[in-house]
Design a protein that fits this description.
43% of the residues lie in helices and 22% in strands. By secondary structure, the protein is an alpha+beta fold. It has a single domain, classed as Sufe protein. Chain: A, CATH 3.90.1010. It has a 3-stranded antiparallel beta sheet. β2 and β3 form a beta hairpin. The protein starts with a helix and ends in a 5-residue tail after the last helix.
Length: 128
């Protein structure tokens, strides 16, 4: 009986350690996230690709711009753990004509990765 209790205690400690490690990794990824400054009046019409690898989350997007407006944002790839609900952020970006929108609660890292990827895609439209 004591062995089972000890094994259970060890498993709980390992689980807690993994959880803390994931939380720290997510915080570091959020801190390191890069966003391009984008003025939509400077973005030429076209389709642009952007991608971000934030460790736990990878996002690749296709962004379509017409007459300085976001027309379409497609997520081409999203490796996300539990962050798939962040994909709903696209609707808000299209409505606001900007990547600078609030993150989806409970999917912050994925939301920020999508926003960063969109900003990088838009930056590719400068000077075209």
């Amino acid at each position: 009986m004591k062995k089972i209790g000890l094994i259970l205690l060890i498993l709980i400690a390992i689980g807690l350690g993994l959880y803390i490690s994931l939380v720290n990794s997510s915080k570091k990824s959020l801190t390191a996230m890069e966003y391009e400054e984008v003025d939509m009046s400077e973005v030429a019409d076209g389709v642009y690709l952007g991608e971000v690898d934030a460790g736990l989350v990878y996002v690749k997007v296709s962004v379509t711009v017409n007459e300085n407006k976001l027309i379409n944002i497609r997520i081409l790839k999203h490796k996300n753990g539990l962050g798939s609900k962040a994909e709903s952020i696209i609707t808000e970006m299209l409505q606001q004509n900007s990547y600078k929108v609030d993150a989806v609660s409970g999917a912050t890292l994925s939301s920020e990765a999508i926003k960063s990827a969109v900003s990088k895609a838009l930056k590719k439209g400068y000077g075209n």
